[in-house]
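INFO worker-7 received task bundle
INFO bundle size: 2
INFO processing item 0
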Amino acid sequence: MSDQKTYDAMTSATLILAVDAARVAGDPFKFTTTFAALGTSRLSDCVTANAAAEFAASDTTGAGQRIGQAVERLAALARNVFNFIGSVDDETLPDADRAQVYAAYLFPGGELGNLRDKDRVISIAQKISAIAASPPPDLPAAGLAPAATVARVNNWLAIYNGNVGIANGGTRETLIDARNTARDTLEDWNARARRTYTSATDDGEYTKELKKINMQPRRMPGKAQPEPLPGAPGAVTYDSATRTLTITGGLPQHATSAVAYRQPAGGTPVEAGVSIDGTVSLVQFEPLDPTVSYSAWIEPANSRGHGPKSNVINFTA
């Protein structure tokens, strides 16, 4: 069962950090490096804990089946990455560079190796995910795994990670407790972020900067009117390789952010990501389940609320 409070906390923290990243040095509302790093860490912990709880099966048997399915698919994706590296022409990826890429993805000597070894398959999948998240600067870009393949690896890794504890005798309740703890600490950071804004200048709770992080400032009686809700977004398109939605023409009038939603077939819609421009990730808060069909859309937002829902995109992960 999805926890709305968790998605709300992740959406708020992601927006707060995105706004802060765009602030320049000397801006009185810019966070200290330490406080921003704390928010980033807590958000990451919450995203990880939430994904584990969402993808977990209800019992040991179900978890074992999901793990077997995940390992099988990850082995096929590892083979795809191996074949991709070998398919790049010699002029684009010389032999020495190709050998370096093979080694980085745990294919030493340019050999595929045993993909029936579960632990090895998981190690390769984790390496594919890690390199995509933070590419080593000395690793030849021409040999990096394609974004669409990385997205699928992340999807199946989430299913594996969410079920391995239960398959080994753990319970889903333990994962839910871990998610709730991570959510609560993230909510604490969000509240501290608001206090940081209100203590930055003499405007205190009346500062209009709060609107940038979709929080309502206080208004002096009779001196200010609430801002309008965001206008309707332009047509939204879907990029299957990057798992992103984009509003044609960017944010509509009065919007300060764009919130993406995704809904599994027969399930409940949840926030999938948020941005301060017109492009939003559908996997910002958790990977997609490769066995599920989804509907997705964007709602422009500001401190007053959400504007009209965009056109709906239907796809299968």
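INFO item 0 finished
INFO processing item 1
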Amino acid sequence: MKFASQATIRRLAAWAMSLMILLTPALGWAMPIQLPVEARLGWTAPDGTPKTALATQVPYPGYENALWLYVEAEAIEQDATLSLTDTFGQYLGGFALADGRRLDTGLPLSNLPYTDAGMAPADMYLEILAFPAPDQLPVSYQLYFSLMAEQPEPPLTTPEVTAEPTQAPDAQVSVFYVDESGNPIVEGSTEYIPADSARVITAPANIGEYLLTGAAEQQVWVDANGIATPAQITFTYALPATPEPTAEPTPVPDAQVSVLYVDESGNPIAEAITEYIPADSARV
């Protein structure tokens, strides 16, 4: 009997292990993924007891960013405060309503534009904006307030998934470097500018011996469709002017001055000599 009991126990243990292996994927599939945003109501009951109500994730396809918050009558009577928690610390810019009011310190129900969602999620929700950073676009969450159901029933319709807008390709702007006759002096280049942006294209002051003759900067605007204005840019260069050669002046020969030595009658008394005096000078 002892051996029979041990064999029975081993069979039961093996059966239980097999059942756990079979059920593990199903249980894992049924577990909702925790959202990075936690919403809760907090209030004080008439007897002084603090109370809270925590929102749960809406577990239906198409409602991945939706929360369901059951609001009991006492929470309304005591004007409970809605507060939000950044579960994973990924919304450093905080939370706000669509009208711009911040939710960093919470807001009472009397200040919230909520509507009873009834038994199932539809289009009666309060939009919550979660900002990854103050200067980044927010992520939208839908918070359903229900005065009737603690958990939502399946929705009558699945919300349409809005297709992500197609990102326009970068604009390709051709940049040319030419001389005064329009002939290229170097190979042109291509600037890739993202849609809905602007860029200033700057030219070098010189290319080899060529000097820039026009503006060194030109701005390009690209609209949301990736259309650039202007579609191409041209920078004009020129060779520096060559100075005219200066002719060497023709040298002026020295002046020849004859020096005579005579008596009072004009008769030479010594041989005359010649003095050579450079131009533009004087000699005594």
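INFO item 1 finished
INFO post-check item 1: The chain has a mean pLDDT of 84.
INFO post-check item 1: Residues 198 and 221 are 4 Å apart (CA to CA).
INFO worker-7 idle
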